[in-house]
Write the structure tokens for this entry.
Amino acid sequence: MLDSGRPPHALLVHGPGGIGKRRLALRLASAILCIDPRSGPCGACRSCHLLDAGSHPDFLRIEPAEGESAIPIGSVRDLIDRFTLAAERARVAVIAPAEAMNQAAANAFLKTLEEPAGRATFILASDAPGRLPATIRSRCRKMAAPAPPDAEALEWLETKTDPAIARHLLALSGGAPLAALELGQRHDKEALLALHAETAALLGGAADPIEVAGSWRKIGDGELVLSGLFAVLGDLVRRGAADPDRLHGAVDDVVETRRRWLEVPGLNEPLLYEGLALRCAGTAA
């Protein structure tokens, strides 16, 4: 793509979260702006040094502010102000996660895509491209970024964290190595192993659902609890360790619970945990 001499006006890099799409987007931006690109950015020219220092005049990175979940219209207006005037030199903006643009920001960005100026390139990184307006998706060249093979991800992760828990972290993160690394940095090894053991005991009918639900609440991370339950169920499904209909029913239950967790504000967490634990108890017995 870069060897063609002209990168696309807009590129949508999409795939699972936690696999390095932002890093890929930034490397592409470096290669586009590099004075002497070959197989990628040279790392030695003035442009590469400016990017490393975060002071390149022709590069803009747009993401939610710290503590916020959305990209506001003000950030897109800043992009428009800097990228509207035509210029001979290349300019690149990386927007990640692209689906975080609120409605007003997405509408303003669409106008920029419809009326490109000069040699501007917009690189969008997204975990959920379906949440982007179809009008934006249709104006981007798409680049799928799949998760790496499990063996490759595990080999990398074992060099970054405790090898004894690397496989477990990878299962909890759905095979995404960067997400697995972050998970291991947020939670201690004993807590993660205890979550796995309690969840397995619950599914095997060897633990009290209400007590397990209480332990889940103490963890204080609903996403981790659901990921842990999903990982154990997935392993049981792959091994054919129990009735497949019951296992798949529990998997569907976890997926639906996660959807409600993300979409419905103000859920009663104790009731949600207890209901899920009671429904899943003994699934693999």
Notes: The chain has a mean pLDDT of 90. The two ends are 53 Å apart (CA to CA). The chain is about 55% helix and 10% strand. The longest strand covers residues 119-126.
